[in-house]
What we know:
One of its GO terms (molecular function) is transferase activity. Pfam families: Glyco_tranf_2_3. This is Glycosyl transferase family 2. By secondary structure, this protein is an alpha/beta fold. It folds into two domains: about 5-200, Spore Coat Polysaccharide Biosynthesis Protein SpsA, Chain A (Alpha-Beta Complex), CATH 3.90.550.10; about 210-285, no CATH class. It contains nine helices and eleven strands. Strands 3-2-1-4-9-6-10-8 form an eight-stranded mixed β-sheet, sandwiched between helices. A three-stranded mixed β-sheet has the order 5-11-7, covered by helices on one side. Helix 7 runs parallel beside helix 9.
Amino acid sequence: MRIHIAIATVGRPALLRETVDLIARQTRRPDGVLIVAPSQEDFGTAGESAVRPDLALSPKGLCRQRNRALDLLEGRADIVLFLDDDFVMAPGYLAAVEDLFASDPGIAGITGNLVADGVRHGGFTIQQALARIEQYAAGLDHAITPRTALYGCNMALRMAQMRGLRFDEALPLYGWQEDIDLTMRLARRGSLVSSGRVTGVHLGVRGGRTSGLRLGYSQVANIVYLLHKGTIPMWLAQRLFWQNLAANLLRAPFPEPHIDRAGRLAGNMRALLDLVLGRIDPRKIERM
């Protein structure tokens, strides 16, 4: 089984090098590592890593960059593991992914049950992530759990069932819910699962991400777009909308140090106005 790792990155070359170097800790080494970025500067020194990654350029945008990876890996990989540039795998991650895919040909995609997610906790350092993996990873439940969709920071996809599927490039820049859109379509072709055998830590590092205003606009516009497309269930769309709007409203006066709540709220309001006026479009963030 040929397993290739694909990492889309922008603006974080030092972090990228650290996370790529950690791939060498895997008990089952990948058959290839591909990094896709908008410019040579985004790669930094990652190309010098011991895992010898391939480097490819692409127009900026998570969906565009991941599609570039899929195009390049067509015919070369049986499994493509998409990792964020701030995801740290537990040492047995790839071995567990291989075992699970081999055990059931009906599995189309796998995501990890995480030890910790820094997005919810203000971010972790590499050292904190490694310590948490060492302390907690072995104790996670190994049961295979069905999933409605996969978490984009770490998701392994079976290429035979991905034929003709691509990330939607109408969701620009950071994408936001591009993982839901793609994997809800993939779920029509095979099962999606997670397991504590497949785990790691999402650092949740903030640098290089979309601005608060753009993300706030996407929090509304992308949901509306995916509802019209039919690739997000209504219950999830409503939960995401109200959770984000309420958080931005309540916390804007006293925001967390790492979150631009005022910018997100302004983006929410701009998107709601565009919705009322019938001109809402996820691609507008590229002009903000």
